[in-house]
């Protein structure tokens, strides 16, 4: 039995010893060995000890990390000693860091009954309590499932976890008086009685079927205003009238076509069916519903949420790996859990926020540096290109790809003119020059395709496109 002197001291006169059934901070390298891999599948993802890629404090932040993408994880560890929760509180507490920006993956724990075969632990294995966060797309919840009469019963309204890359602390406190609290980062986010929040028993009360709505029950919130009277002659205004503008066609033959009648058109005077103005009903009593009576089928059960717990299991699926479980605690004393949380979690909250801020700033800085490097590289390439052009006498005027074509044209026409006026020896030299310059151009052109685009962008001074190109 592990006595917690701190809680004994703090409780003073009422000497109550807290018991710890499982406590794991993963600070010892061999701690991971306690977690046995299930033999039910071949491809269960691997686990390791890691503080993650970033952390507040390397030693404290080391936890159990699930380290392969798109895998099932089935691992379980025995409690230090079995936990019979009769007349005791149960406190399950642990932290989770989803540093990988979770898209879909759970990070909940299952408490397994005494005698559970850990080698066969998988999603179908019976458990007593399942607790912890689960994210999938827009669906975020903290599971709080209690086994009752061999059924796994989820809390009626699951609390919502925080979706970020920071470590969060989850505490489920099931009290001996059958009330409970769920805490997130040491703040109570849900409390009440177990039987109110979990649909484990038939309802305590049901509507009385013999209760009937009284004849004189006024359930209409408004009535017709008795003062409002229909105006004289209102009903004489018809919905349609004969079109006064219509004229009998000149070729109308009364004998052949019958009596001519003007076509009907909507009456502009018509105001619809008359209805009295509505006023609030002074006798309104609200919506009627039958009164509740005790449910004869209701039956509570002292064994609700009393468990004999022997082990703790991880049975999750994840798309992206990286989730870190840490500071797992099973105890019967919330005070002990609070002091444990203070040592292992609260003291590191701000440090972790700072570490994350630093990381984000570093990433931003690295990105900026990379951007600058790319820009410098490009500038250098352009300069180099420019020098090359300057060195080559034949393309002396060429400043960029766009101009190189013109240069070549100019040179060619010059060469042509020259070749006409010169001897054979010079002609052969010029032919060689022309070929050379063409080769240079071909090589340069393929290399410069990107550059010429960049040059164009620069000319248009379109900075946005530039940075897009670099990306
Ligand atoms: C839940 O918390 C509220 C506010 O702290 C408290 O008034 C209430 O008694 C609690 N309910 C139970 C069942 O513990
Ligand atoms: C955690 O919450 C409890 C109860 O709300 C409080 O007494 C305790 O001081 C808190 N601990 C820390 C470290 O914030
Ligand atoms: C071309 O190179 C020469 C000699 O290296 C240099 O003096 C000249 O300034 C350069 N021309 C241009 C336009 O940079």
TrEMBL record:
<keyword id="KW-0430">Lectin</keyword>
<keyword id="KW-0143">Chaperone</keyword>
<feature type="compositionally biased region" description="Acidic residues">
    <location>
        <begin position="460"/>
        <end position="471"/>
    </location>
</feature>
<feature type="region of interest" description="Disordered">
    <location>
        <begin position="195"/>
        <end position="256"/>
    </location>
</feature>
<feature type="disulfide bond">
    <location>
        <begin position="104"/>
        <end position="136"/>
    </location>
</feature>
<feature type="compositionally biased region" description="Basic and acidic residues">
    <location>
        <begin position="242"/>
        <end position="251"/>
    </location>
</feature>
<protein>
    <recommendedName>
        <fullName>Calreticulin</fullName>
    </recommendedName>
</protein>
<dbReference type="InterPro" id="IPR001580">
    <property type="entry name" value="Calret/calnex"/>
</dbReference>
<dbReference type="GO" id="GO:0005788">
    <property type="term" value="C:endoplasmic reticulum lumen"/>
</dbReference>
<keyword id="KW-0862">Zinc</keyword>
<feature type="signal peptide">
    <location>
        <begin position="1"/>
        <end position="18"/>
    </location>
</feature>
<dbReference type="InterPro" id="IPR009033">
    <property type="entry name" value="Calreticulin/calnexin_P_dom_sf"/>
</dbReference>
<dbReference type="GO" id="GO:0005509">
    <property type="term" value="F:calcium ion binding"/>
</dbReference>
<keyword id="KW-0256">Endoplasmic reticulum</keyword>
<dbReference type="GO" id="GO:0006457">
    <property type="term" value="P:protein folding"/>
</dbReference>
<dbReference type="GO" id="GO:0005789">
    <property type="term" value="C:endoplasmic reticulum membrane"/>
</dbReference>
<keyword id="KW-1015">Disulfide bond</keyword>
<keyword id="KW-0106">Calcium</keyword>
<dbReference type="InterPro" id="IPR018124">
    <property type="entry name" value="Calret/calnex_CS"/>
</dbReference>
<dbReference type="GO" id="GO:0051082">
    <property type="term" value="F:unfolded protein binding"/>
</dbReference>
<feature type="region of interest" description="Disordered">
    <location>
        <begin position="362"/>
        <end position="471"/>
    </location>
</feature>
<comment type="similarity">
    <text>Belongs to the calreticulin family.</text>
</comment>
<dbReference type="GO" id="GO:0036503">
    <property type="term" value="P:ERAD pathway"/>
</dbReference>
<dbReference type="GO" id="GO:0030246">
    <property type="term" value="F:carbohydrate binding"/>
</dbReference>
<feature type="compositionally biased region" description="Acidic residues">
    <location>
        <begin position="216"/>
        <end position="226"/>
    </location>
</feature>
<keyword id="KW-0732">Signal</keyword>
<dbReference type="InterPro" id="IPR013320">
    <property type="entry name" value="ConA-like_dom_sf"/>
</dbReference>
<feature type="compositionally biased region" description="Basic and acidic residues">
    <location>
        <begin position="362"/>
        <end position="380"/>
    </location>
</feature>
<keyword id="KW-0479">Metal-binding</keyword>
<feature type="compositionally biased region" description="Basic and acidic residues">
    <location>
        <begin position="390"/>
        <end position="459"/>
    </location>
</feature>
<dbReference type="Pfam" id="PF00262">
    <property type="entry name" value="Calreticulin"/>
</dbReference>
<keyword id="KW-0677">Repeat</keyword>
């Amino acid at each position: 039995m592990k006595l917690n002197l701190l809680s004994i001291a703090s409780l003073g006169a009422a000497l109550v010893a807290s018991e710890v059934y499982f406590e794991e901070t993963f600070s010892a390298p061999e701690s991971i060995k306690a977690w046995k891999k299930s033999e039910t599948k071949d491809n269960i993802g691997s686990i390791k000890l890691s503080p993650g890629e970033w952390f507040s404090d390397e030693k404290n932040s080391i936890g159990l990390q699930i380290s392969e993408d798109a895998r099932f994880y089935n691992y379980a560890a025995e409690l230090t000693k079995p936990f019979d929760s009769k007349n005791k509180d149960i406190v399950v507490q642990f932290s989770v860091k989803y540093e990988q920006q979770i898209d879909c993956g759970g990070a909940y724990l299952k408490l397994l009954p005494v005698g559970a075969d850990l080698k066969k632990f998988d999603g179908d294995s019976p458990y007593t309590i399942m607790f912890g966060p689960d994210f999938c797309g827009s669906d975020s919840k903290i599971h709080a499932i209690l086994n009752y009469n061999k059924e796994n019963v989820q809390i009626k309204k699951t609390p919502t976890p925080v979706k970020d890359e920071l470590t969060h602390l989850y505490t489920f406190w099931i009290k001996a008086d059958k009330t409970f609290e769920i805490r997130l980062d040491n703040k109570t986010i849900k409390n009440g009685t177990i039987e109110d929040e979990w649909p484990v028993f038939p309802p305590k009360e049901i509507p009385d079927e013999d209760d009937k709505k009284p004849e004189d029950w006024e359930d209409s919130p408004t009535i017709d205003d008795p003062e409002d009277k229909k105006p004289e002659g209102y009903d004489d205004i018809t919905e349609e009238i004969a079109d006064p503008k219509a004229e009998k066609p000149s070729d109308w033959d009364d004998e052949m076509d019958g009596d001519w009648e003007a076509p009907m058109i909507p009456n502009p005077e018509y105001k619809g069916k008359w209805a009295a103005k509505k006023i609030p009903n002074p006798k309104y009593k609200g919506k009627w519903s039958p009164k509740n009576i005790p449910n004869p089928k209701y039956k509570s059960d002292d064994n609700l949420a009393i468990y004999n717990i022997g082990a703790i299991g991880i049975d999750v699926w994840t798309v992206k790996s990286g989730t870190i479980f840490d500071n797992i605690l099973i105890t019967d004393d919330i005070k002990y859990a609070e002091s444990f949380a203070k040592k292992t979690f609260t003291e590191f909250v701000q440090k972790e926020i700072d570490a994350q801020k630093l990381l984000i700033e570093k990433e931003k800085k690295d990105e900026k540096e990379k951007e600058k490097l790319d820009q410098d590289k490009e500038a250098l390439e352009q300069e180099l290109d420019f020098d090359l052009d300057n060195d080559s006498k034949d393309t002396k005027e060429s400043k960029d790809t766009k101009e190189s074509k013109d240069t070549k044209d100019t040179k060619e026409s010059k060469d042509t003119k020259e070749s006409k006026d010169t001897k054979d020896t010079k002609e052969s030299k010029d032919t060689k020059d022309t070929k050379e310059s063409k080769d240079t151009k071909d090589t340069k052109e393929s290399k410069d395709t990107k550059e010429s685009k960049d040059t164009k962008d620069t000319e248009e001074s379109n900075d946005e496109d530039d940075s897009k190109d670099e990306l």
